[in-house]
Amino acid sequence: MERYTPVIPLSEFIDYLFLDTDPNANQWVEDFIIPTHPRMILTPTRDHAEPKEQGMVKGIYSRPFQLSKSSVQDMVIGVRFKPYGLYTGFGIDGSEVSNSIVPSTLLLGEVYPSSPDDKVDKLQLIQQLNDSLYNVLRPKKLLFEIEEMISALVTCDLINDSQKDLARSFERSPKSFIETFKKATGFTPIKYLHIHKVEQAKNVIINNDELSLVEIGNMLGFYDQPHFNRTFKQHTGFTPNQFKRMHSKTER
């Protein structure tokens, strides 16, 4: 999968554009399990041909996102947005797309990337996508405040920090803080933080065999091991121990 930097000012709302002309289903699905970033996934058409199916926009998920092999065509192109990018850049309320998939027409209208019949012009497709996104860009003034909210949230202590303290630091009431955060991401601050922490835990479990699950839970600020186990299972369907065993078998 090739990644491309979006043009300015799209880069304020988008992490990267991507294109894969030969997607391996399993590998491709693995790259899309990160639930803390909205995505748009498109299957480009050939010139003068109708799209076989609509592209899709998926919001932040509280559970891993799975694609069936039939969903992966011979080419995919798309966008990984920043956690708040759909709302602050394009006016799409996070609550409308959280834990769900909506047609790409919600964002792009009827515009759809296409390539020449005889070959795949990667740069042309990426340029079309950049242009299409730029044309529907509707930035909101509170971009930087929401960006700071998320940065403050993901670095806070699950045990000692509270939503009231965070809201106060942004000179907002707890209600206003929660409502603004939910519009941007689709989730309350605490729910988003749990999703973020579980995704961190998954990466640590995969890449640090020497750390025990107790150490990982403590390192990420969970109240205790039962809290870590319960939260991890809620968002992945597996306990940390089950996830670790599954990954160990995969590595063999």
Could you list some keywords that capture this structure?
2 domains; Arc Repressor Mutant, subunit A; single chain; two-stranded parallel ribbon
Overview of the molecule:
With 252 residues, the protein is α+β, with helices and mostly antiparallel strands. It folds into two domains: 2-135, no CATH class; 143-251, Orthogonal Bundle (Arc Repressor Mutant, subunit A), CATH 1.10.10. Helices cover 46% and strands 12% of the residues. The protein is built from twelve helices and eight strands. The strands form two sheets. A six-stranded antiparallel β-sheet has the order 1-2-6-3-5-7. It has a two-stranded parallel ribbon with strand order 4-8. Helix 7 (163-169) crosses helix 8, helix 9 packs across helix 11 (225-236) and helix 9 (189-207) packs parallel to helix 12. The longest helix is centred in the C-terminal third of the chain and has 19 residues, at 189-207. The two termini are 25 Å apart. The relative contact order is 0.13.
What is the overall number of helices? 12
**Number of structural units classed as domains:** 2
The number of strands is 8
Estimate percent helicity. Answer: 40-55%
Sheet-strand content, in percent, reads: 5-15%
Computed over alpha carbons, the radius of gyration is 19 Å
* Strand-pairing-aware structural class: alpha+beta
Q: Outline, from the CA principal axes? A: globular
User: Main sheet, how many strands, which sense, barrel?
Assistant: 6 strands, antiparallel
How would you state the average pLDDT, rounded? 81
Strand order of the largest sheet: 1-2-6-3-5-7
Low-confidence stretches: 28-32, 46-52
H-E order: EEHEEEEHHEHEHHHHHHHH
Give the N-to-C terminal Cα separation.
25 Å
